[in-house]
Amino acid sequence: MKNMLLEKVNSWAAENNVLKAGTLVLAGVSGGADSVCLLHVLYSLGKIKGFSVAAVHVNHMLRAEESMQDERFVQDICVEWGIPLKIYRRDVKAYSSEKRCSLEEAGRILRYNLFRDLRNELNAQYVAVAHHKEDQAETIFLNLLRGSGLNGICGMEEVQGYIIRPLLNVEKNEIYEYLSRNNLKYRTDSSNLSNVYIRNAVRNRIFPEIARQTGFNAVNSLVRMADIVKADRDFLESLAEGYYKSIVISKTEHSIELDRNKLAGFNFAISGRIIRIAWEAVTGSLKGLESKHVKAALELAAETGKNKVIDFPCGIIFKAEYDRVYVMKKEETKAPVPLFMEVRVPSDILLKERNILAKFRVYSAEEYENNFGRFEKPGEKSIVQLFDYDAITGGINIRYRLPGDVFTPYGGPGGKKLKDFFIDQKIPKQKRDELLLLADEKEIIWIIGLRTSGKYKVTRFTKNILYVEITEYDGD
Predict the structure, then answer these.
(1) Torsion, CA 218, CA 219, CA 221, CA 223, rounded to 10
(2) Peptide bond preceding 338 in cis form (omega within 30 of 0)
(3) Which part of the chain is CATH 3.40.50.620?
């Protein structure tokens, strides 16, 4: 391997454990110098390392005949090199108008959506894009102007999920040198010369002026800064990940429940990251989450005793309730499907929607003692509970809460409305609707997994014992 750039990318691939033999890499190719260089590097390395390359070209339809010439050019080089190619045409201007975003952002969204879909279709391991060192510096600089946090200052990642950037530490002059050495032609996008686009203005005017006025190479300085900052960012994110795991109370595919007091007690550098981790866990990305949303969430979490819901973008809400906070999709706030099952004793009842099996048996006090030994009151959170069967006067049922429910907590002063008990115990409203109850008509016998009723406790006067056991159903 004689070429310096090939050796550089080959070393990068080894360090990042990518471009392995037997894999397929999809390369985004516009026809410009950067993407032609990337495609040829991958094509050359693929023959040496044993991975395959396919290309995708997205015609943005912004420059009329010039765009069509780009498309034909990419088609010609892929035919010459024997590389499979997919071509897409997308009206970026129309999409920009529809979504009210810049042409640059519209093109990026459409390209990456196509990259994702085609990667899945072709079962490619990675999508390679041709960002280089100058692109990285421009991104960092623009993020600084926008007031970005550490993530923005760190710029683009060399490996970001299935997106890889093999040329991110390659300078533009190295790309031109490679193209010249290999006699490779490329297309020049005329719009790159227009300083109407802010990125072009940074590249063509601001960076050269900084060099002229100060003598500093802005590209090298910004990239060096990003490398330093990444070490700090990675350390903070590692800490935040550990703290996040320690304060997660429960999680589903669409909801994360966190300990409110612990979240509020962290430094913002940690708590802000915890909110971002929870957001990404619920939505699959950080898209739509801004610093103002993180700040609002943490301010609410810190307001002791205040229960409130904040609407965020992407159909996400942040809810603070008692000593819990939730990052969740709106649909998760819906009440569960109604449940009401009559219980016959003895019986085994399978609740498929809750993935549990409930076993009910009745023993005389003597039978129980002969089979299980002397009676001892199970712990309140035990999955096995014993009740005085003769104290049950109505029909036994398993269900969710209903208006008018009454509960007499074991060891408590007396009966009260179930709603008041939940409020006293600071049980969040959403959780109240999810708690499974064993009931004697309107009187609650057992809030399963939480508390039992003192009204049905077993005493030395109990003649018949109701044995209830709740186990997880594994499908067997």
Answers:
(1) 150
(2) no
(3) 4-222
H helices present in 256-326, as ranges: 260-265, 268-283, 291-302
Which DSSP state fits 344? -
As a whole number of angstroms, the distance between CA 126 and CA 82 comes to 19
With vertex at residue 35, the alpha carbon angle to CA 30 and CA 38, rounded to the nearest 5 degrees, is 150
pLDDT of residue 189 exceeding 90, the answer is no
Please name the CATH architecture into which domain 4-222 falls: 3-Layer(aba) Sandwich (3.40)
pLDDT class for 280, splitting at 50, 70, 90?
very high
pLDDT digits (tens, 9 = 90+) for 115-167: 999 999 999 999 999 999 999 999 999 999 988 888 889 999 999 999 999 99
Reported CATH class of domain 255-333 = alpha beta
Q: Give pLDDT tens digits for 55-100.
A: 999 998 888 888 899 999 999 999 999 999 999 998 888 988 888 8
The pTM (predicted TM-score) of the whole model is 0.69
Contact 255, 327 (CB under 8 A): yes
Residues comprising the chain, all counted: 476
Task: Kindly state the helix (H) or strand (E) to which residue 259 belongs, with its residue range.
Answer: strand 255-259
In which band, very low, low, confident or very high, does the pLDDT at 52 lie, cut at 50, 70 and 90?
very high
Q: How far apart are CA 11 and CA 168, in angstroms?
A: 13
CB burial string 243-261: b at 16+ within 10 A, e below: bbeebbeeeeebbbbbbbe
Residues 6+ apart with CB under 8 A from 138: 199, 202, 203, 207
Question: CB-side exposure of 193: number of CA atoms within 13 Å?
Answer: 3
As given in the structure block, the two tokens for residue 387 are 């009740």
